[in-house]
Write a structure and sequence with these properties.
Serine Threonine Protein Phosphatase 5, Tetratricopeptide repeat, 30 helices, disordered C terminus, mainly alpha, elongated, single chain
Length: about 550
């Protein structure tokens, strides 16, 4: 009888537990050559995974699954099937293969009664659920299994998912408490298995992005770095960088966000290429805000049907003057994702899109929903979005409450430390104060533009909905649109047609005289007009925007 010290399979398992991936590979290769058991194939597949040899790992573990079945080890086969489903989905983005392996897992485990493998299957299904209630319910089932079978990896991984589902639902404080507990179980060594440890850190950063919790994310960065250094698990680094980049974008640290998102894309390209759309679409969203629409469009290409594409795609449609398409894009995503905290940005965009499409009643309904979400969650960022949405509707319907609502939204965004949203709100406030308090309006506008310049946002980002917002409808048939004028140029043309001088246009739009002159020159060229008078007779005045943020 082979002693445990002489058994290469047991030595391989010990090497896996110690994160000695090369040592594990050597031991399991010896075991495959001498014993050829399913466990040896399974262990060798795990070693190759941690070494980053993903295709080799998948082949070996598929062989291990078949070998477990031949040996009658049904539960072990079911457990491998669960992990194969996850790997096919995350490494290659192969949803069909994932579904197939989930089917195998269910077939193997259906007759096995209560076992820990069923808990892991429930956790995988939880991680794939778009519906928040399903996510939480399946994670709680997994948590119970982890406790019953004394599997701390499953228990705390499930606890992290429960916390994430609570954050997605808007119960941020309670959700973060659960996730912090799970992450502490990793850093203390209670969770030694590197796979659930990595998943816990991913849940943590996902929740931090939803809540725009910069401080909590940065508090855990050192622990993440230590985990990656110990395990070499680059996909976890990619996932956390992706979420951190999203957090930095919201916090106004756009240069740092670009660095993190670009690095995340490079890491995904080297590892889980099938999941690279996450940072790609976050970068696309940033590109729209920067006015780099061609780059954004190219980044989104091929990912249009993923839920993560909805925000950048809707922003892009609004920037291109297609609010009805933006409405359809957002509503389709909301059906799939639900309308909790994770959808707050979508709801805010839906208000703008409806206003631009002339659907004021629909915009008001959504603004009330978003406002209620802000009150329920207690999150200043969401509260700001809700109040700003109500202000947009008030502006569109000429209600006198608009200025008070804008002031309230501004305070919420300042509290949440969201500089882009602060600038957007200041700009809208300047527009509303222009007639009665011009000096205050000028000060608000200057502050807003300075913030946008610091962020390197598109300098005309707030004018992108100008043509549509003034009319509350489509730009189809408009001479300015037919000539290919940008939204800012169309706005300048409207003022030009009213007889405004370049100096007056500059003062009206808070731009330099040189910039106004440049706009006028381009307008004349695009319209084929020899002078300002010819341009003026070609079009009627294009109204100024009425409080639409669009971007």
């Amino acid at each position: 009888m082979i002693s445990e010290a002489d058994d290469p399979t047991e030595r391989g398992r010990a090497a896996l537990a110690a994160c000695d991936w090369e040592g594990a590979r050597a031991c399991f290769e010896e075991a495959v050559a001498t014993v050829g058991s399913a466990a040896a194939l399974d262990g060798l597949g795990q070693a190759h995974y941690w070494l980053g040899h993903y295709d080799r790992a998948l082949r070996l573990r598929e062989q291990a699954y078949a070998a477990y079945r031949r040996q009658g080890e049904v539960r072990a086969a079911g457990g491998v099937a669960v992990e194969l489903g996850a790997l096919h989905l995350w490494v290659h983005g192969n949803g069909a293969a994932c579904d197939g392996w989930i089917g195998h897992a269910r077939r193997m485990l259906d007759d096995q009664g209560d076992c820990v493998e069923v808990g892991w299957l429930e956790l995988l299904l939880a991680s794939m659920a778009d519906d928040v209630a399903e996510h939480e319910a399946r994670a709680r089932t997994a948590l119970d299994a982890g406790r019953r079978f004394d599997d701390p990896g499953l228990e705390y991984d499930a606890l992290g998912h429960i916390g994430l589902s609570l954050v997605r639902r808007g119960e941020v404080a309670e959700g973060m408490h659960r996730i912090d507990e799970a992450a502490a179980a990793v850093s203390s060594g209670v969770v030694a298995d590197p796979w659930p440890a990595g998943e816990i850190y991913c849940s943590l950063f996902d929740a931090c992005e939803l809540a725009v919790d910069v401080r909590r994310a940065e508090a855990w960065l050192a622990a993440i770095d230590g985990y990656v250094e110990r395990t070499g698990e680059l996909p976890v680094s990619a996932i956390c960088r992706m979420h951190y980049g999203g957090i930095l974008r919201s916090a106004g640290r756009w240069r740092d966000a670009e660095v993190e998102l670009t690095e995340a894309i490079e890491l995904y390209d080297r590892t889980w290429r099938g999941s690279r759309f996450g940072p790609v679409l976050r970068l696309a969203d940033l590109r729209v805000l920067q006015g780099r629409l061609d780059e954004a469009r190219e980044l989104i290409r091929g990912h249009e049907d993923t839920p993560e594409a909805a925000v950048p795609l809707a922003r892009l449609h609004l920037a291109e003057g297609a609010p009805a398409v933006a409405v359809r894009t957002i509503e389709r995503c909301l059906v799939r994702r639900g309308r909790g905290l994770a959808s707050a940005s979508l709801l805010a965009l839906l208000v703008d899109a409806n206003l631009l499409d002339g659907r004021v009643g629909e915009a008001q309904t959504v603004s009330e929903e978003l406002d209620a979400l802000g009150e329920a969650t207690g999150q200043p960022a969401v509260r700001g979005l809700g109040v700003l949405a109500r202000a947009r509707v008030a502006i569109a319907t000429r209600e006198r409450s608009a200025i008070d609502l804008l002031e309230e939204a501004l305070g919420a965004f300042v509290e949440a430390e969201l500089p882009y949203e602060v600038a957007v709100t200041r700009h809208a406030l300047a527009e509303e104060l222009r007639e009665e308090q011009p000096e205050l309006a000028r000060a608000e506008a200057r502050t807003a533009r300075a913030t946008l310049e610091r962020l390197r946002a598109d300098p005309d980002v707030l004018a992108r909905c100008a043509v549509l917002a003034g009319r509350g409808g489509s730009a189809g048939g408009d001479p300015a649109a037919a000539a290919g004028l940008t939204p800012r140029e169309a706005e300048v043309l409207g003022l030009l047609a009213d007889g405004w001088s370049n100096a007056q246009i500059a003062d009206r739009l808070y731009i330099s005289i040189r910039t106004a002159e440049d706009h006028v020159s381009k307008i004349l060229t695009k319209l084929g007009a020899r002078n300002r008078t010819e341009a003026a007779v070609q079009v009627s005045r294009v109204a100024r925007p009425r409080g639409c943020s669009a971007l």
